[in-house]
Amino acid sequence: MSSRVTMGLAVLFLLGALFAGYWGLVLSRQPAPVAQAPVVQTDTIAAPPPGVEKPVEDPTRQPVLVLAKDIPAYEPIKADDLIVERLKVAPAGSFSSPEEAIGRMSWRPLAAGTWLTDSSFEAGGSLARMIRPGERALALSIDEIIGAGGQLSPGDYVDVLLYLPSDQTNPDRSAQTVVPALRVLSVGALMGPVNQGQQEQGISRDERAQQQKLKANARSVVVAVPEKLLSRLMLASQAGPLRLAVRSAEEKNLERYWAGDSDIALEQDTVSRNVTHFNQLSMGAARSVQVGSGEPRKPRSIEVIRGNQTAQQTP
To answer: Which of the residues 5, 80, 85, 282 has an alpha carbon 20 to 30 A from that of 60?
Structure first.
């Protein structure tokens, strides 16, 4: 009985194996490729998917051309060196499109993030771009006393004072204002603004802050001198000690300069230049003046008696 059951199961398993093999063979056959119609390309632009909107530019912002990387000196600017930023306030004279700068070369290195203007491609150093035709930049040696206690700043206006000691050719000591109202361009390494009041963009903000800390220890100052007064100031710097007297900001001299007035020093210059001699300060000039009266003393008269006559005579 058991042998028959075993034979029946064997036959059943054999039939199942044959069926599985046949079904696997059928499924392994690939269907015939279906012919597809050729795809014809058209010039129609695919519509954007629903829900995606094109960004709308803010009409209150203006395009400003900015350097995307550092540019070495004398290297032509390429399109990939530039980016266009949209700012609420565009810097004066700034470019708005790459076409205004592509192919141009700057004589000095330009840092990334610098907005470009025509002055970016002008020749000349920082000092040359701080002065106007008819002015000269002249450096003077200073210390804490000469330089107003180390409190000078670029943009200040100063009077240059000269002390002349006595010598064989000049027995009288004197002091005078050699040149008035000179604009300070730099104090040590701290530079002032270039023309149009723009800050020099060749240094970073951190470098400028470091220069500001070293201002009190500066040993030189550069002033803008009218060409007509240049020789006088040069001669005075060798004749005796100098002092720099700071003029009040209430005079609005710097505002006048940016407004186009470059002759402030010449307007303030006088023939006498406030010359003061030492003997004007000595007490000898005051000995002939009565104390508290301001009028010169009158010599006393002497009474002369001759017999029965008397008379007053002045010696």
So the answer is: 80
